[in-house]
Amino acid sequence: xxxxxxxxxxxxxxxxxxxxxxxxxxxxxxxxxxxxxxxxxxxxxxxxxxxxxxxxxxxxxxxxxxxxxxxxxxxxxxxxxxxxxxxxxxxxxxxxxxxxxxxxxxxxxxxxxxxxxxxxxxxxxxxxxxxxxxxxxxxxxxxxxxxxxxxxxxxxxxxxxxxxxxxxxxxxxxxxxxxxxxxxxxxxxxxxxxxxxxxxxxxxxxxxxxxxxxxxxxxxxxxxxxxx
Length: 228
Fold this sequence. Notes:
The chain has about 230 residues and is of the alpha+beta class.
């Protein structure tokens, strides 16, 4: 059977209720605290403090502090009003029902917090995935840009080389033909160089031969002497 703590004190402001509970030389690590909108409790065996609050508090804005051998409940009022008393009188069954409601309220609160954390975690993961995909897309785009740049540079170099080859063809072609010629042909050209003055066309040669034949026919035969 726990020892009920009745030597507590409390005070209030327009928005806050302060409850001070002595620890009776118990260590803070031995204290189990519980708060809800209508019920608060501090259990440090063998001692127990609990209070069914006369008015509602905002549990999310309330807190507990352990210092100087005391527990301080700093409770934020739901409505800014003066409380007539800290607690209200309840039957045993009403107190049990209030505790069950407080436990269900706390369970729902933690379940809601857990769901919110799960949603936030999912959103962070989605954001990370989106960021990763964006970075991956940028990396692929950068690789593609580099490929296009290399392709453009290679095409430009090829066109420059092609242009240079075309400009030098008039100079390089005769040299290339000479290098491809047979050695005998190159030697013949060197021993018997062509002379434009010794070249006649076929018609001129034919006319010259006909003239020589006519002259031979017109030339009288040589005289022969008869013997005496």
